[in-house]
Design goal:
mainly beta, 8 helices, globular, disordered N terminus
Length: 534
């Protein structure tokens, strides 16, 4: 959700009723925590009531509604633990803490006349994360409204609990969901055309429904992660690997999950892009495409600071790198310290010198460099001579993905289903850090709006959206709930696309889901389109 992927919807997490809070195993002798329980069974999926619309031959859209009156979510107050952020080195909040911290906090709440509720929280079933106890959650009270819970949190601040926060328990994965609204598009690629597009220049944002209407799409959803702030790039530009009609327009920082459509045939794989610029026998790697040199959104580059590890939604920095700009960027390139070379469509250097900005010539490109990489560019970019740029996209298994017309790619993270079974590579894709629960806990483990792509045994593309952040209407899903849903829908492979406020699906050019931003449908970056077969 660059779309607020790290936001915590009403900051809500799971809670057990007060009557149950004193039942369970002893917690350091003083208090008792509710034993860790598995998330509610995926049986909720079987309770969804579906209606079906045949949009066109080979294109079916199903709408699913779950209303569970037996669920009883409410407002409460959570006391966060504190930790040291692995990214910033400063104090940060985390939603669960150690048993010792929970016991001490519970005693303090009791002394303040706020009976505590403690819940053991187990690690979700990620393929590459620890198992067993993740931490203990501490809460107090049950309130009829958000305002009442916020008032209680404010009172608790004054009583020495500065991390007290009002939360809605309906977003807790270990509680039954009271409502979900799901849309599933099932597309036979032999009967409809599937493609990923940015619909023009890449430095722009448009709504899914507007693009769907303009291009007469049968179905459209939002696609990959993208830049949403001028402070760390060009708005609308993907912050992962992106290919439109065979042209590489953005790179990822380390392998990431990707939806590939090759002449309309969909597949899902972990991809990585490699780009090199050469002057004769000398060559230098290019770290990014259509981004600001030195600024790396979604970390994962060797040598970057504050971390070289994959970290979704975190901005890292490089002091030495080359960045390529394409003519599809569609906006002015940055000026500043460093070097710059302007190339024509054949790679011949038209001008070379300081990083002066300007625009990319039609059909040409610009290379900018900072630090030692800028020095290399200064030494090797000679007006009238050629700089050769080579680009390669491969799967992590080493299979080459030829950059030819008809190839389209959007990327996000993580993978959800592989070979028909849940396989969530949350750590490898940088969406969680087991050593730092202040990072992305809410994005991964709290119910959020989601957009999902999957492929079934017949090779059909499954595009799924789940609305969220709408208490009592549609709560959203966690990563593990996404995987459960996609398995139940018959996906052999599935991945998480951009979600949160970006989640949108349009049918025949009309938005059919309820987006979560208060301002309405969010302008996104790129899109998955289903078009009539030409």
């Amino acid at each position: 959700m660059r779309n607020s992927r790290n936001s915590r919807p009403h900051r809500s997490r799971a809670w057990y009723p007060a009557a149950a809070a004193l039942v369970g195993l002893p917690l350091l002798g003083a208090m008792a925590a509710v034993p860790a329980s598995a998330a509610p069974s995926s049986g909720w999926i079987q309770q969804v009531q579906w209606t079906t619309q045949q949009v066109a031959p080979g294109v079916t859209v199903r709408t699913g509604v779950l209303a569970n009156p037996a669920a009883a979510p409410h407002w409460t107050v959570t006391i966060d633990a504190t930790t040291t952020s692995s990214i910033t080195g400063t104090t940060a909040n985390e939603e669960v803490g150690t048993p010792a911290w929970a016991a001490a906090t519970a005693s303090q709440l009791t002394a303040a006349d706020y009976p505590p509720q403690l819940t053991n929280v187990d690690w979700p079933g990620y393929a590459d994360a620890p198992h067993g106890l993740e931490g203990v959650r501490v809460r107090a009270g049950s309130y009829p409204t958000q305002a009442a819970a916020q008032a209680a949190a404010t009172t608790l601040h004054g009583l020495g609990f500065p991390t007290a926060t009002a939360e809605w328990t309906g977003y807790d994965s270990d509680q039954p969901t009271d409502g979900e609204q799901v849309h599933e598009a099932i597309i036979d690629p032999s009967k409809a055309t599937i493609e990923v597009t940015h619909n023009g220049i890449v430095a722009q944002r448009q709504t899914t429904s507007a693009v769907a209407s303009a291009l007469h799409a049968l179905v459209a959803t939002n696609a990959g992660f993208f830049i949403t702030s001028n402070s760390f790039g060009f708005q609308g530009v993907p912050d992962g690997i992106a290919v439109y009609n065979g042209q590489l327009e953005s790179m990822n920082n380390g392998p990431r999950a990707a939806l590939i459509t090759d002449h309309g045939k969909p597949q899902i794989a972990n991809l990585q892009a490699t780009v090199t610029v050469s002057a004769g026998k000398a060559s230098y790697p290019v770290n990014g495409i259509n981004r600001i040199p030195g600024i790396v959104q979604d970390c994962g580059r060797p040598g970057a600071t504050p971390t070289a590890q994959p970290r979704q939604d975190i901005t890292c920095h490089e002091n030495s790198e080359l960045v390529l700009f394409t003519s599809q960027l569609g906006t002015a390139i940055p000026s500043g310290a460093g070097a710059q070379a302007v190339l024509d469509s054949h790679g011949v250097v038209l001008s070379a010198g300081a990083q002066s900005g300007g625009t990319v010539p039609a059909g040409g490109s610009v290379i900018q460099g900072v630090g030692a990489a800028g020095d290399w560019l200064t030494a090797h970019a000679v007006v009238g001579q050629r700089l050769a740029v080579s680009e390669r996209v491969t799967t992590t298994a080493g299979r080459n993905i030829p950059l030819t017309p008809g190839l389209n790619i959007a990327s996000a993270a993580p993978n959800l289903v592989t070979d028909g079974r849940t396989h969530i590579d949350a750590v490898a894709q940088g969406v969680i850090d087991p050593a730092d629960l202040s990072f992305n806990y809410a994005w991964a483990e709290i119910r959020q709006p989601r957009t999902i792509a999957g492929i079934d045994k017949s090779g059909r593309l499954l595009l799924v959206t789940v609305d969220g952040r709408q208490p009592g209407v549609s709560e959203g899903l966690t990563l593990t709930e996404e995987a459960d849903l996609m398995e139940s829908l018959g996906a052999q492979s599935a991945m998480n696309l951009d979600g949160g406020g970006s989640t949108a699906i349009a049918v025949n050019g009309t938005l059919v889901n309820h987006t979560s931003d208060a301002t309405g449908e969010r302008p996104d970056g790129d899109f998955v389109l289903v078009l009539p077969k030409s």
